[in-house]
Design brief:
With 144 residues, the chain is of the alpha+beta class. 22% of the residues lie in helices and 46% in strands. The longest helix is centred in the C-terminal third of the chain and has 16 residues. The chain is globular.
Length: 144
């Protein structure tokens, strides 16, 4: 298990309320979070309250990959924290902290992942935030 801290930031030309909602609204989450070239999201269950569950099931090349955790902090539209377990990708539990900062034009999202995670975590999160940007622009999350 690799323990490290990864932090990525992205400025979105959207209000922080929209960026925050993209993390807790199952209909939006299924469009971009954990989406890649060969998978599809088959189930999303999100209870965005402290102690509430987050569960996202992905089907990739016939395999079911489960992502799950619990919300630690929910302060719309400023902060969101949750644990993340993905046993088929990494051992242990990651902590995901999201900070949403209002800008004169848009919102800066800073994602910090600590504890467990895959070796290329920074690259993976950057790709996912690219996907969120594309969703906001009316495009598919993953560009072929």
């Amino acid at each position: 298990m690799k323990l490290m801290k990864v932090s990525v930031s992205r400025v979105f030309d959207r209000p922080c309320e929209d960026v925050f909602a993209a993390w807790i609204d199952p209909q939006i989450v299924r469009l971009w979070l954990f989406v890649g070239p060969t998978n599809r999201i088959v189930d999303v269950d999100i209870e965005p309250v402290p102690g509430g569950r987050i569960s996202i099931d992905e089907r990739n090349d016939g395999r079911l990959i489960e992502h799950w955790g619990r919300f630690a902090n929910v302060e719309p539209p400023h902060k969101l924290s949750f644990t993340l377990n993905v046993p088929k990708h990494f051992q242990g539990e990651a902590l995901i902290d999201l900070d949403f900062a209002r800008l004169s034009s848009g919102c800066r999202l800073t994602l910090t992942r600590t504890q467990a995670g895959p070796p290329k975590a920074e690259e993976i999160w950057r790709r996912m935030l690219d996907g969120l940007e594309r969703i906001f622009n009316g495009q598919p999350a993953y560009r072929q």
